[in-house]
Amino acid sequence: MTLSATSFFETLNQKILSHKAKIAIIGLGYVGLPLALTFHKQGFSVLAFDLDTSKITALKKGHSYIKNISESAVQSLSQSPNFEASSDPEILKKADAILICVPTPLTKNREPDMSYVVSTTDTIAKHLQKGQLIVLESTTYPGTTDELMRPLLEKTGLVMGRDFFLSYSPEREDPGNPNFETASIPKVVGADDPHSRDLSVTLYEQIVPKVISVSSARTAEAVKLTENIFRSANIALVNELKVIYEKMGINIWEVIDAAKTKPFGFMPFYPGPGLGGHCIPIDPFYLTWKAREYGVSTRFVELSGEINTSMPFYVVDRLRDELDKRFSKSLNGTRLLIMGMAYKKNVDDIRESPSLVIYDLLKSKGAEVDYHDPYILTVPTTREHPTVSGLESIPLTQKNLAAYDAVLILTDHDSVDYKFLSEHSKLIIDTRNALHFLKEASHVAKA
Predict the structure, then answer these.
(1) Is the pLDDT of residue 273 over 90?
(2) CATH superfamily of 230-446
């Protein structure tokens, strides 16, 4: 190791330990903003960079654009002399460490869309300074950090491990979960040289209770995929069991509640109308895509994805059957209310939400569809579901409910009055067991 590399390492390491390092965070969404707040709370100077000028404007004014993050927390951040927000990449030159929290979606062909990571890395390269640490937090396939990012950064003539440092540390946010926050969740870190790894471990040790160091960046990338594929596979299992047990007249929720009393060998997972969010519906496809490069099939992973993506169709089929059986009605011309556009309860996030898919399916069959969601008053523009964009949440009133032939509970927000909903609805398709408190309800069907 050259003297310059050792010198850069020691200088940055000391800055981190003394909390004098400036931390730049690229991407101020559901991962980046909590990260910014956590570093700032520990006394670090935070530089917020995002091309979305509306986010930067909101941060400067102290407004929170994420419902689970309080206005007071953002106000405290915006008023601090240790915080700066900008859409000008020149801000990155001031940073000692740059953390990347940008989207990694899928293309229409269900392949990794790395455009955000590539463009962000190119931007960093144009402003790269000797001695900086760059950490990718976005979920991705094994090899992204060393195969994609490193060459782009080294085009500058600077060398990883000598002139700059590079690592991967997967985000582990769970929006809407009151039991965990950024500061309480252990962090995994992987890098391909000792200095990059040690600096990253030291950095995250300042804000979380435990840091787990692994041997390489691609190992850390695989950790993130494994965590979410584990959830995807188990959710697919209970979704399949739900379909089977429904045919047998067995309540899957009752089965799970009883099974989870076993103190060993069982972990409860719950069915739903499909998978949503920024990780679980996407991560399996990142692995299957990369596995093809090695000539390896991923049959189990792909089967799980197929089951989960089929659930919106199952929900629509259950609704159609219930309408026909109870009212001799088809979906065409039927008035329907979707309860919840968010992908899970108590969040304002619609990314990959199965509600969007179900909405489009119902509209394609001629149904008139509205929605209610206390977290999403207006559906934002989405690339995959333009027909839903701009739709507004309707108030949950007795008069409004009387106008619908059926209600579909797709997201079980805690703030909804489900007793009121039950009392004033003709038919409810409950995909989340939100009406579990009803012992007998002839107008409720599980799906």
Answers:
(1) yes
(2) NAD(P)-binding Rossmann-like Domain (3.40.50.720)
